[in-house]
Amino acid sequence: MAPASHITVEDVKQHKVYMGLLERFKVHVCSTMVPIPEAIVRSIAAINISRARKPPDLQSEQEHVGNGNSTDEILGSLRAFDPTDWALRRPRRTSSQATSWALLATCYQAAAVLYLIRTSSTHACEGDTDYFYSRLTKCIRKLYGLRQQGGTLYKYVLWPMVVCGVEAITRSDERQTKSLCLLLEQTTMDLGTLSMREASVFLNELWLAGMKLVIESSSRPNMDWDTIFDSAPLFLM
Description:
The protein is mainly α. It contains ten helices and no strands. It is globular. InterPro entries: Fun_TF (IPR021858). Pfam families: Fungal_trans_2. This is C6 transcription factor. Residues 55-75 are annotated as: Disordered.
């Protein structure tokens, strides 16, 4: 989620190596620190590579990574991903665990689509943005609802929550922004980590900056992604 200027040629090469290792070793996502579906990992890597500012002689780096080198191809692969099907193939003991996995996967799918749309030139329509924003907000809320029943996967959606928060702010959706910040603060208390707290502070500050733009221009804040994350490289994935 860093500005495009922060994604270097070396980052592109590291993405390529990582994707090769992912394919070679068949890593089971449930055994990783953050259990993101492999298809979504590949799509996010492809988005990062498509955003990187590379010399012409290194353009070929992009062709061998992820779901193709076209943003429309990436969007198509994200749309085609089925969170429920993925969830049903995860290890589980109860049907509620399958529900949790599906919610987690949907969070990452929706966040990746929003990330792609907001940072790239695609043929996505406004309906795509509205649809995936709605799905993301609902799934985050449901994951946190399952927390009351012993669910733990809410701990792994920091990145989707930040993407959701940025989208909420560009829409001047104060209710959703405040809700996300509150959930991030709660998770900070649960986990004892600062990353959630820092994300909450980041979104709060971005909200205030957005409202200042609204007051000055009397319209929705038109925030450029690179500008938003210029001071927040913490969220580079």
